[in-house]
Amino acid sequence: MNKITFLFFFIMSASICNAQSLSSKIIDSISQKPIPYATVQLKNKGVITNEEGVFSFLLHKNIKETDSLFISCIGYESIGKPLKEFTDSVIVLQPKAIELNNIILSNKQYTAEEIIDLVRANLNDNYNSSLSKKRLFFRDSQYQDFVKSNVEFKKSTIAALNKKFIDSVMNSIPKKSSYYTEILCDLYGNNDKEKQKIHLIKASELYDKKNELDFTKLEAKFNEIIKSNVKPNSYLKVKSGLFGTKIKGDDFDAFYGKEIDSTDTVALKKQLEEKKKQEKERKTNFAKYKKGALGRVFKDLFFVEDAKFNFINKPKKYNYTIEDFTYVGDDAVYIIGFESKGSADYKGKLYINSDDFAVIRADYENIKPLKKFGLLGFSMNEFLGKGKIFFSKGKNEKYSLRYLESEFGTKVGIKRPLKIIEKNKIVRGRNRQNELSLKLDMAFKTINKYEIIVFNSEELSSSQYDAYTEANNVLPKYMPNYDPEFWKDYTIIAPNQAIKEFTSEE
């Protein structure tokens, strides 16, 4: 047997009630490989293992060592036993032998298309669309990669804006960077993104602030050069190809920022009030941005009308095949493969409960660019769109989102000239006074990965929904390195190795 590297350890003993949390790694008994997306439940609360098979579970004071932990995953034997019997840091699941049960043997032998028709016929009965309050954890991981950053220096009549300065600007741009935000929140509403409210409980952000500081220094240097070389009665014309825009001399302070005299108490007070206003807006905007991202996720679930993921609602666009048959616990599940007939964007697999014909899991990936655009030196290619969506049945016998993992990526390119020209209408014969001329050939790639787990959901009446008023005063706590203590009192999706090993250069 290969040696297993233990990422987490159980703290199991007679004093388990006093433990803060338990963590472990789930592996396949035959391959010894991690099992991602397994469901781990304890006293009607649960989490999902990450892509490395790791989970972390908060133990409340009322948890006893005799309470049972239940683990299930598609294609594996489910296990359930008291916490005190989990004495190892790795949990092993056995692949489940596939035996056709009586339901499948006695039912009509459906074709893949007939199964999809039954899924569509039961969408309204199977999935929740009513108002609810959902407690969820949302991790947004963003990766940016400059695949091309060529800037050809053509001309500059401002001595400080020389080739050396332009090169320093380009060298300061990180070729690769990553940014992570995590939030725990209550989301009020339904699948309509316009009818959602959010209550932020806790949030964090993880990135290298050194990159931000480098940009700030460069911006300050650029501002200093512009202010010292451009007259107040001049204006700058920024031109790229056929397009141009103006910045008037009177607007320089507003555009670049104005220094405040430390002896001017009125100006200082005004600046302080402005900062307080900006801080309040930042809190509101952070919550609004996260609510918008979550709203787009729920809007595009395949059972919502006009959803982006149309592999159920647009069956004429896809070919369907029965690929396999398996179990989730004791539930028999069809595995239906789907692929585009030509015009559709996705291919993937659907895991469909053979009893109520509910899709309990959907895996998808794009087979062609989702959007593509190119004009006058600008290009955009939405090249990536893949993910996994899991659903679970609630007390009302309807299914709701349980876990979502989604990746989407875009490439953007710029290949065109850029000119910054100082002009002055007052000084005779000096209409064009200073000029910086460059040729840009740049391209960067951005990939976002969403991970969402819904811990619990409770139905709301219209009056309960209307009664809640958003009042978000939470901003994410900045972390230069991952801090496992930040979420120690909460159950979340366990971070992957890349997040745990993230280190800033500051």
Q: How many strands in all?
A: 21
Share of residues in helices: 10-25%
- Beta strand %: 35-45%
Rg calculated over all Cα atoms: 28 Å
Number of helices: 9
Order of helices and strands: EEEEEEEHHHEHEEHEEHHEEEEEEEEHEH
| Major sheet summary line | 14 strands, mixed
Mean pLDDT rating: 81
Oligomerization:
single chain
Extract low-pLDDT stretches: 1-19
Silhouette: globular
State the distance separating the first and last CA atoms: 42 Å
SS-based class: alpha+beta
Report on the structure:
With 506 residues, the protein is an alpha+beta fold. Helix content is 20%, strand content 42%. Residues 1-19 have low confidence and may be disordered. Strands 8, 9, 10, 11, 12, 13, 14, 15, 16, 17, 18, 19, 20 and 21 form a 14-stranded mixed sheet that branches. Strands 3-2-5-6 form a 4-stranded antiparallel sheet, with no helix packed on it. It is built from 9 helices and 21 strands. A hairpin with an 8-residue loop joins β19 (399-423) and β20 (432-459).
Short characterization:
The protein has 506 residues and is α+β, with helices and mostly antiparallel strands. It has helices at 102-106, 112-121, 123-126, 163-172, 209-229, 252-256, 265-299, 462-467, 497-500, and strands spanning 21-28, 39-42, 45-48, 54-58, 68-72, 79-82, 90-93, 132-156, 176-189, 196-206, 235-240, 243-248, 318-328, 331-340, 346-353, 359-366, 371-375, 378-393, 399-423, 432-459, 477-479.
